[in-house]
């Protein structure tokens, strides 16, 4: 890390590209820049082979077959394709199933996709979560019936880091005859994922949440029993007709390399990151009495801390007083909004406390020195903000 560079603790917004990923991508920009669909010549065939090798790595990360992976521009597109594609295909086939079940704490692109479908005659059901951010299985059970088409529940929450019980949710969805989709953008590479164990029909992934490049992601689409989707847009019919458009070979290769690294090193990564998180939290709690961790403290991804600071100070005031740290006050996809986090509201946290909350994302390249230094800087910033407030 360059001297005087801010300490980066916003790994839920995006992760840095792993140097090994960057090295894997570079030749496909500089040496073989061919279109991977131009299989009439040698360079095109080589690009196609690289894309297919990467697809296999992505599939391996989630226990899928390579041909079940549809490459997209990211998790937002994958989520839209999963939810809208499944709903519209079912409607085209005359299905009477119209209910789509999701959680109040889902990513905006999931919530908005579900709400958009209301205008097409579907029934959105947005379930609450408990104060710890977890879904009560009985609440889901009560929402499921023979009208349910799809259940969409995020694997790991992007703000509070809690891990939902995907196996139980998938089993209940199957029992109701519904499809099960999970947004696994924050989970892939951080926790073990197996589409067979969780009985997922659809699963969304993002490159830039797994130390890969921005602009690339994937959607797992189950083959047996076969899941069918209506495409979001028209084109040349690439990606089994689900997602037309020329594939960006360098980005696909980067996604594949990131998936390979995550599959081989993810468990070790998680253990080390959890250690850095605990070091950071212990140091900060010593300096900030009354600091609160939001979300279940056991069922959470290793690098996440969602922290409410005491003293009635605004999180933005703490951030202004700590320019040497990169953290956020909520989801990067909603950070331009003035309103407090809808995720924290769903946990029953008052707006005044939600405004005093920061999201910490510790990652692969966070050092123990970074963790200790960041805790000291945040504690000092909080004291400065409290003093200014009073």
Automatic annotation (TrEMBL):
<dbReference type="GO" id="GO:0005829">
    <property type="term" value="C:cytosol"/>
</dbReference>
<dbReference type="GO" id="GO:0051537">
    <property type="term" value="F:2 iron, 2 sulfur cluster binding"/>
</dbReference>
<dbReference type="InterPro" id="IPR000192">
    <property type="entry name" value="Aminotrans_V_dom"/>
</dbReference>
<comment type="function">
    <text>Catalyzes the removal of elemental sulfur atoms from cysteine to produce alanine. Seems to participate in the biosynthesis of the nitrogenase metalloclusters by providing the inorganic sulfur required for the Fe-S core formation.</text>
</comment>
<dbReference type="InterPro" id="IPR015422">
    <property type="entry name" value="PyrdxlP-dep_Trfase_small"/>
</dbReference>
<comment type="similarity">
    <text>Belongs to the class-V pyridoxal-phosphate-dependent aminotransferase family. NifS/IscS subfamily.</text>
</comment>
<dbReference type="InterPro" id="IPR015421">
    <property type="entry name" value="PyrdxlP-dep_Trfase_major"/>
</dbReference>
<protein>
    <recommendedName>
        <fullName>Cysteine desulfurase</fullName>
        <ecNumber>2.8.1.7</ecNumber>
    </recommendedName>
</protein>
<dbReference type="GO" id="GO:0031071">
    <property type="term" value="F:cysteine desulfurase activity"/>
</dbReference>
<keyword id="KW-0032">Aminotransferase</keyword>
<keyword id="KW-0408">Iron</keyword>
<dbReference type="GO" id="GO:0046872">
    <property type="term" value="F:metal ion binding"/>
</dbReference>
<keyword id="KW-0479">Metal-binding</keyword>
<dbReference type="Pfam" id="PF00266">
    <property type="entry name" value="Aminotran_5"/>
</dbReference>
<keyword id="KW-0663">Pyridoxal phosphate</keyword>
<dbReference type="InterPro" id="IPR015424">
    <property type="entry name" value="PyrdxlP-dep_Trfase"/>
</dbReference>
<keyword id="KW-0001">2Fe-2S</keyword>
<dbReference type="GO" id="GO:0008483">
    <property type="term" value="F:transaminase activity"/>
</dbReference>
<feature type="domain" description="Aminotransferase class V">
    <location>
        <begin position="7"/>
        <end position="372"/>
    </location>
</feature>
<keyword id="KW-0411">Iron-sulfur</keyword>
<dbReference type="GO" id="GO:0016226">
    <property type="term" value="P:iron-sulfur cluster assembly"/>
</dbReference>
<keyword id="KW-0808">Transferase</keyword>
<dbReference type="InterPro" id="IPR016454">
    <property type="entry name" value="Cysteine_dSase"/>
</dbReference>
